[in-house]
Amino acid sequence: MVRAKAIVSGIVQGVGFRYFASRLADRYNITGYAKNLPNGNVEIDAEGDKSAVSGYLGEIKIGPRFAHIADMRVEWLEPKNYKEFSLY
Question: Looking at residue 48, what is its pLDDT?
Fold first, then answer.
């Protein structure tokens, strides 16, 4: 079990990005959350199997159709044992 916190910047608010992140989390069996930040970025905290989290982040970096990912910073942290994937 691993946990990664990612800050995604670019055109990521108002384009369905968090819902995209949530649908992907279901597909990869990821728990955690996605939330909009006041500066226009999105924070994603993803927890699960190492290969699942890596695959998940790879697709997050591409984003949904109307998003444009300018940058994604990832920090690997100790797991928190989230029970589900939430949107904030």
Answer: 97
